[in-house]
Amino acid sequence: MKIRQAKQTDAKGIAKVQVDSWRTTYKGIVPDKYLHNMTYESREEKWKDIIPQTAVFIAETTNGEIVGFANGGKERIGKYPHYKGELYAIYILEEYQREGIGRLLVKAVIENLQEENIFSMIVQVLAENRSRVFYESLGAEKIDTAEIEIAGKQLTEFVYGWENINTIVEKDAYS
């Protein structure tokens, strides 16, 4: 598996991963109508805008298929002054999950944050998302709970934080 920084030409593959991942991860959590209305084309256009503006990393198979991605940067909420960075998104196709790809993608985001002298980070995760244990396995602490609305449905989000992202990389070195 190769992890590399995304180029604009990767937007289509990233969009496919995002839509397919949302449909498997959030089935039964996010309203079905919302999931069915997500399109590869609309997500591709959004990623074409996002890629030049923020660090996006992809997981690519040896045959060049994009099977996962993550992006992050400066913390956007402004509500957590002790946390300077944020993992904005990480998605991996269901059939490639639990193979260590998530750790590799998080590591790429962390290395990028470290280059910007950012050493703490948050991530927001739907409480009902089973994958939230991934963040806990990386040492994240739940620091807040928030309510959000998606397609008319109220959902709870957990905000996880790492006061020192170096511990994630160090932990990974010994795993």
Helix-strand blueprint:
Elements: E1 2-5, H1 11-25, H2 32-37, H3 40-50, E2 55-60, E3 66-74, E4 85-92, H4 101-115, E5 121-126, H5 132-137, E6 141-150, E7 153-162, H6 166-174
Parallel strand pairs: 4-5
Antiparallel strand pairs: 1-2, 2-3, 3-4, 5-7, 6-7
Helix pairs in contact: 1-3
What does this structure look like?
A 7-stranded mixed sheet has the order 1-2-3-4-5-7-6. The protein contains 6 helices and 7 strands. It is 35% helix and 30% strand. α1 (11-25) crosses α3 (40-50). The mean pLDDT is 92. The radius of gyration is 16 Å and the shape is globular. The longest helix has 15 residues, at 11-25. It has a single domain, classed as Aminopeptidase, CATH 3.40.630. By secondary structure, it is of the alpha+beta class.
Instruction: Report the total helices.
Output: 6
Global morphology:
globular
Distance between the termini: 18 Å
Major sheet: arrangement of strands: 1-2-3-4-5-7-6
Average per-residue pLDDT, rounded, comes to 92
Number of strands: 7
At CATH level 3, the topology is Aminopeptidase
Structural Rg: 16 Å
SSE order, one letter for each helix or strand: EHHHEEEHEHEEH
State the helicity in percent bands: 25-40%
* Helix-strand category: alpha+beta
CATH architecture: 3-Layer(aba) Sandwich
Low-confidence stretches: none
For CATH, the homologous superfamily is named as Gcn5-related N-acetyltransferase (GNAT)
Major sheet summary line? 7 strands, mixed
Please give a handful of descriptors for the protein shown:
single chain; Aminopeptidase; globular; 175 residues; alpha+beta; 6 helices; 7 strands; seven-stranded mixed β-sheet; 30% strand
